[in-house]
Design brief:
Helix content is 57%, strand content 14%. The chain contains ten helices and eleven strands. A five-stranded mixed beta sheet has the order 6-8-9-11-10. A four-stranded antiparallel beta sheet has the order 2-1-4-3, with helices on both faces. It has a two-stranded antiparallel sheet with strand order 5-7. β1 and β2 form a beta hairpin.
Length: 478
């Protein structure tokens, strides 16, 4: 958009400079032409008067010739005067030239021609002007004057050069002004675009500065009010979900206690079977409530405590640098008994050498790793689960992969959605919130969750973080 606006303003600026320069140069050409024409017409009139005196015997031809010679010597221009007794020349002007013959023919018809063509800065050659002299009823002769245009052309070229330099300077000023106007107009638009992106990513945005044109200032104020309303609505919804989930735990707990007491009063197998079904559904409700509370905490962490700009650049403080391998080792050991009960095995690969570090909350990394390992145990029963830390020059990945049935390409894109579960796992106990929680916590710590198919089958869950270097002896980021 900046290039388009700047391009339009630049074209307009250049057109203004071209039109103004053209008008100034045309005016300069007319001015020099008129000045030269007036001077030469005055000189021609004087020579015609001297020629008239010579033709009427008031003067003589020798005086006229001397006057013509002085003029040609002074200005370097030829003069030709035709009298009834003969033709006088000076400055090398001859009747052999076509333009001179044409001028004499017009003068013999008592037609004066003292008009010069508009000057052009480039070119060569001269022009002739002529007039007749005599009485009111008789033409006694004609005077032709050669006009040398070189000096006037040189003066016009100098003016062209001056106007060209001035036009270039004016164009530079206008282009600079266009660039500043473009920035002034588009700066609020860019800020608004950044604010929209931030609002989409974090659910909130700061107050926009009110600058630029009045319409954009009003737009910034309106967007700030709208963003505040949206943020408050998101906060209210998130808080409502968390409060509702928390408040439901009390009646659910009371209901579990009553069912436990009721089971003591049951006698038949059918009654115990019905009570067990109710208890299983109650446990499912408790599991969903626990998942919703964990999700609410993860979203609170993502949107409130660690609202971020670009990936890996937190806007509210930098988490401590940690080595992710010991945390993965602890989570793998904790999940070992559950893996044995499902017939799975957990393989913890060796740590990278040298050790790598990431900027992440240790407790949240443990929660993310635990969720992914438990997912693998639950949905890839009997398969081998691999836990590893992968190091690249610019990133570090915490990777949990399994050799289970995996997910299709469509299912991989839908897996981080709330309450999503694969149709093949409908009978497996779960609430469909584990991947969502991991995705939110990963984003809150500057990372991202990536899901991919394993070869030949299975699922790879990878949490990528920007790699952080540690200065020797300081333990801080390089």
């Amino acid at each position: 958009m900046k290039l388009r606006v700047l391009g339009v303003l630049s074209v307009l600026s250049v057109l203004i400079v071209i039109f103004a320069s053209t008008a100034i140069l045309a005016s300069a050409s007319r001015e020099l032409t008129q000045e030269l024409q007036i001077n030469r017409a005055a000189a021609l009139n004087r020579l015609a008067q001297v020629a008239f005196d010579a033709a009427t015997e008031v003067g003589d031809a020798q005086q006229l010739q001397a006057e013509m010679d002085r003029y040609s010597e002074l200005y370097g221009e030829g003069v030709l005067v035709r009298l009834q007794t003969g033709t006088l020349h000076s400055g090398g002007l001859s009747e052999d030239r076509t333009d001179v013959r044409d001028a004499l023919a017009r003068a013999n018809l008592n037609l004066n021609d003292t008009t010069l063509s508009p000057l052009q800065p480039f070119g060569s050659g001269s022009e002739v002007i002529s007039r007749s002299f005599g009485s009111a009823s008789q033409v006694l002769g004609a005077a032709v004057l050669e006009v040398n245009l070189d000096a006037a052309r040189q003066k016009l070229r100098e003016r062209w050069l001056f106007v060209g330099v001035a036009a270039a300077a004016l164009a530079a000023v206008l282009l600079l002004g266009a660039a500043r106007v473009t920035r002034w107009v588009l700066r609020p638009v860019h800020r608004l675009n950044s604010a929209v992106t931030e609002l989409e990513a974090t659910g909130r945005t700061g107050q926009l500065p009110e600058d630029g044109p009045p319409e954009l200032r009003e737009l910034s104020r309106s967007f700030t009010r709208m963003a505040r309303t949206v943020s408050d609505s998101i906060d209210s919804q998130r808080q409502l979900i968390a409060d509702t989930s928390h408040q439901l735990r009390n009646p659910v707990g009371a209901l579990r206690l009553r069912i436990d007491l009721l089971q003591l009063e049951l006698h038949t197998a059918r009654e115990h079977q019905a009570a067990a079904g109710v208890l299983a559904e109650l446990e499912r409700v408790e599991e969903i409530l626990d998942g919703v509370l964990r999700l609410a905490a993860a979203e609170h962490r993502a949107f409130e405590d660690s609202a971020r700009g670009p990936q890996g650049h937190p806007s509210h403080g930098i988490p401590a640098l940690i080595d992710p391998y010991p945390i993965l080792q602890e989570e793998a050991e904790r999940a070992g008994p559950a893996a044995q009960r499902s017939g799975s095995s957990i393989l913890l690969e060796d740590p990278p050498d040298p050790a790598v570090h990431i900027a992440c909350n240790a407790a949240e990394l443990a929660q993310m790793a635990g969720e992914l390992i438990n997912n693998a145990i639950k949905y890839a029963a009997g398969a081998r689960i691999t836990v590893a830390v992968r190091a690249r020059p610019d990133a570090v990945a915490v990777e949990i992969s399994d050799a289970g049935p995996g997910l299709s390409a469509e299912e991989l894109s839908a897996a981080p959605s709330r309450f999503w579960r694969s149709p093949r796992h409908r009978e497996t106990r779960g609430n469909g919130l584990g991947m969502t929680i991991v995705d939110k916590l990963a984003g809150a710590n500057g990372g991202r969750l990536l899901l991919a198919e394993a070869s030949p089958h299975g699922l790879i869950a990878r949490i990528e973080f920007p790699r952080a270097e540690v200065q020797p002896g300081k333990g801080g980021p390089a």
